[in-house]
Structure formats: structure tokens, C-alpha cells
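Entry 14. Structure prediction run on the chain below.
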Amino acid sequence: MKLVQQVIFAALILLSLFSCKRNPLKVDISEIKTETEVVRFDQELFDIQSNDTLNSLTELSYKYPEFFDLFTYKVIQIGGIGDSLFLDGMKLFLTDTMILNVKKLVDTEFSNFEKTEKQLKKAFKYFQYHFPDKKLPTVFTCISGFNQSVFTAENLIGISLDKYLGRDCKYYRQLNSTPAYRVQNMHRDKIAPDVAYAWGITEFEHTNKATTLLDNMVHHGKLMYFVDAMLPEMHDSLKIGYTKLQLDWCKKNEPEMWSYLIEHKLLYSNKRMDIIRYINASPATSGFPLESPGRTGVWIGWQIVREYMKKYPETTLSDLMKNTDYQNILNGSKYFPE
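Output returned:
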């Protein structure tokens, strides 16, 4: 009898440990049948025949009207198909030596796009699980001439594949406007987390209620938790774009960072430069050691939101994203790293 009790006790301990480690965001999506569509717009655009360019472009614009206009007006900035200089601008783009060389690199790097496509479709199944009433976006790939990495509009997402060619891509070293800390994240494994984060920004706009550093930290922390929900199996370093050393540094120095913000009365600062210093991407966080990564305010906000959701497991992702009472989230989280 005593042996049976010991076995039951051990089983309960194991069950408890398992429950503690279980990721509540790794939900069952097997019943979700809808899938987001992924369009290789880059391939369709460059397959256009030069002897019939205008007609082919017109057909492409009818096929994908919203994305076509977004791409030509905002991304490569040559105007609309009805503009007098549009055709010349598009021909220049399609025959530019650098663009053609980049296309070859894209074709090689993404010759097998299946893994990335599956990852994106799975991520949006998780999105559909949490937001069943929202419409899924269509995802378009393109070559932008090193413009935006991910850009969005209503019900669509664009991915510039030439911004994900790998850290060793020679063009990234030649582009003076692309610092090393950004090149660190210009590889194909960053596509899905970048798409998830960008979609979070699109779906849950930054409201005027976020006026202090704390507000911005928690707001971006919510966006990172949104990425958690869309990519529950992905490692944190990929989600936020840190190296293992940078992530380890944040975990080790979390209490010191929090104490610093409190002691220097920065949490409730509404100074623009204070907010930029801790929220925007940078090689390191000003005021912290050089070993620190940028965006440490986002990382801390992420931990605050995670603690809040642990304390209130009945809170849905939809409830969280609607909540703009940033102080309430901090108070509810009882966040105090030590």
C-alpha cells in the first residue's frame, strides 16, 4: 500500500512539473481548415515577357490589384499603371543589373520555399484560432530593391525576399544604410516572426494612450506575446532577433535593468528620446553595458505581459490585445525580477 502511495505521489509530482512547463499557447489547430494564401508575386512579375510588357503588367494588376498598387506606388515608387512614366520605370526595374543579380540570389536561396510557406500558413492558423472572426491576409513575396522587409495593408502582407538573403549576402555589406545589427536578422528564419510582429502592429494599432516609456514597453510586450501566440514553438531569440548571448544577457541582467529604470525615474518618462532609447532597434541600449542588445524595453515589456497572462490564464489573447490600461497590466503582473 505504501509503495502504491509513493507511485501515485511521484506521478502527481511529474504531472505538476509537466503542467508548469506546458505552453498554454500551443493550442490544437487541427480543426482549422482555412489557410492563408501565399503568392510568389516576385516570380510572376519577373516572368513577364519583354515583348508584351504593358499587357502582361495590366493582367497582373487586375489579378492582384491591391498588392500591385501598393508595390508600385509605395515600395518601388514608380507610380501607377496609368501614369505616363510607369512603363519606363517598370522596365528599368526589371532590367536593372543589380536587381537581376539579386533575383538570382533570391531564386537560389528560396528555391525551396515550402518550409517558410508552411510556417506562415501554420502561424495564421494560430491567428485564426485566437481571432476566428478576423479575415486572413494574403501573403505576397516580392523583390523590392532592398526597401521594406515586411509591409502590410488591409488583408495583405508583403515580404521582400531580398531582405532575407542571409547574413553573408555581399549586398548587405555594400549598403551603408544597413548597419550590422540589422544584418544579423536578415535571414530566412526571421521571415515568420517579422510577419507575425508586423501583422500585430497592423491589427492592433499603437494608440495615443501609450505616452510614457512604460506604456510603450507594455504595448510592444503585447505585440511580442502576439508573436508568441502565432509561433508558439519558435525560440525566443528568433522572435525578438537576439543572439543567444544577447538573450542570455537579458535574462541574467533583468533585475538590474528593471532597477535602473525605476531608480532613474524612467518608467513614466514621456520624453521622446527616452522612449526611442529603450524601444527602437539599436546595436546596444544606451545607458546599459555594451554587451546589452537594443530594444531591451521591448524585452522587459514582453516579460511583464507574460507574467500578467500567467496570473490571469482566463484572459484571452483578444482580451489582452484590447487592453490599453498599461499600468493595470503591470500591476496585475506583479512583475518584480530578482
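The chain has two domains: 38-203, 213-333.
Filed with the rest of this week's runs.
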